[in-house]
Amino acid sequence: MAKPLVWITGASSGLGHALSLEMAKRGYRLALTARKRDALDALKVEIEGQQAGAEVHVAEGDIIDAQRMEAIVQEMDAYGGIDIAALNAGIYIPVDATKPDLDAFHKTFDVNLKGTANCVVPLIKMMKPKRQGQIALVASVAGYSGLPMAAAYGATKAGLINMAEALRFDTDRMGITIQVINPGFVETPATDNNPFEMPFLLKVDDAARRMADGLQAKSFEVTFPKRFTYQLKVLRLLPFDIYHWLVSRATKWHGKPLDKS
């Protein structure tokens, strides 16, 4: 019996790239999506070079293109259909409220929220008649509560957490497993320029292994590293003034000079 077909968006770099390699190592068949075809082709060659006999299908597309995402879901019917989706594609644009940039909000919302919805809807339509399937929304602990520079990014990740929670009321009844993946800080190009300390920073390969474990376990929330993410869960229960005081000092944001330009 063929292994499940896993659709990974944002597969060409960062956590998506590492997850693609990890899932191939575990024997899954892959459908990989990203905006750049050359990067996808290079990833396909990399996977096939590491895993003899790996089945890898590439489908170029931008998740902000709803029609293209629907077409990709339909295209994968030729290979038995998507069994598991890891909706990982997203962007992080730091927002400095002392120099607010409206475009940063719009771009982040379009990709992280609207783009994910563009994938979720055709997936549910495809999985509902089969009464089976698995959809994982990759959010972040930045969605738990506010963090410096994350006014746009954190808002979208909070939205994805809420989206998964709300969808589960219906997906359970349809036999579809819905998950939300909330990683802590992961060492990727997106975090390279964060101007604050990132506790418990994970190597991307380690994060990919933990994500793959969570996909296999099918628990609703997959969060890691727990020694960090559970601290954040506790912090968000505190009165906001106390939370803000603690996080400001932990990130060394307290007393940061104000750019007057």
Explain what you see:
- The protein is of the alpha/beta class and 261 residues long.
- It has a single domain, classed as 3-Layer(aba) Sandwich (Rossmann fold).
- The protein has eight helices and seven strands.
- Strands 3-2-1-4-5-6-7 form a seven-stranded parallel sheet, sandwiched between helices.
- Helix 4 (102-127) links the parallel strand 4 (84-87) and strand 5.
- Helix 1 packs parallel to helix 2, helix 1 packs across helix 6 (204-217) and helix 4 packs parallel to helix 5.
- The radius of gyration is 19 Å and the shape is globular.
CATH homologous superfamily designation:
NAD(P)-binding Rossmann-like Domain
**Strand content range:** 5-15%
Number of domains: 1
Query: Rg, please?
Result: 19 Å
In a nutshell, what does this entry contain?
The protein is of the alpha/beta class and 261 residues long. The chain has 8 helices and 7 strands; from the N terminus they run βαβαβαβαβαβαβαα. The protein has one domain: 3-Layer(aba) Sandwich (Rossmann fold).
